[in-house]
Amino acid sequence: MKNNSSTKGFTLVEIMIVVVIIGLLAAMAIPAFQKVRTSSQDKAVLNNARQLAAAADQYFLENGVSSVSQGNLVGATNYVKALNLVANETYPAGYTQGQTITVSGIAGARTITYAP
Hints:
By secondary structure, this protein is an alpha+beta fold. It has one helix spanning 12-63, and strands spanning 67-69, 94-96, 101-106, 110-114.
């Protein structure tokens, strides 16, 4: 009888090297995903600010005023049907013609300013 002692499979060192490589790749990928997430949140917030600015401009034209509260702009029968929050941000309660819109508290840390 022949004793066949071939070594099929992986050694512990080879498995550990693969685990370390996967860990390094994950460590490099996570910050990139965070940047994409932050960028998409900022773009969504900026889009909301643009919609509010356009709604406020329309309100100013139709009503001959220069300031309006958010309650007159957002609602089922108003200019903006719904304001979808993407990162727990806070929009101004009122808007004045020609003034910049500052959205604060984006993900608890960032602020975006939109100048109409």
